[in-house]
Design brief:
Length: 225
Amino acid sequence: MEWSAIWLTLRLAMVVCAVLLVVGTPIAAWLAFTRWRWKFLLEAVVALPLVLPPTVLGFYILVAIGANSPVGSLYHRVFGHRLPFTFTSLAIASVIYSLPFAVQPMVAAFSGVDRELLSASAILGASPLRTFARIVMPLSKSGIITGAVLSFAHTLGEFGVVLMVGGNIPGVTRTVSIAIYDHVEALDYASANQMALLLMAFSFIALSLTYAVNRRVWAVWPLHR
């Protein structure tokens, strides 16, 4: 069992989940409440990783953070080493790749909040930010939890994107999915099976907890239409 690959994958999934909660929440809120007629363009951009082959997405991310790109050259000047094939590059690629898995459940939850409650809050003098924090967020716990868990579980199983951007460096960018692929290539099916079962167990537990928590959330805040 390659514990270094397991720990790196879990650390990557936790980082991606935390970043997407911070970045994805305002994006989802804007998509849910804006009346801009062209918002479908941003919706398409957010959903693009769902339809793009991982290798295509990984290639363009690699080009975007490479040494000749503005992002890559700035990173090299600040930190003294290149961005590709590092844990940071894995995190950036995974955030982009898992973005729709976090944003779309939150958009659905935010859109389902009763607009009359928002109007009443505005009439009482609450700011939009306070209304969002005190009304929208509590009533959207189900979508937020689902987005967080789906992005976490999706990151656990990433292969094409992380291989393109991070390569296969033990202890640095070698994730569980890449380790499984290497074991299969070496015809070491026993080791591949062990790690695959562990990954499946992690994913099953995460999804089971999501359904269990969501059921309890709706028991506390039932929907009335």
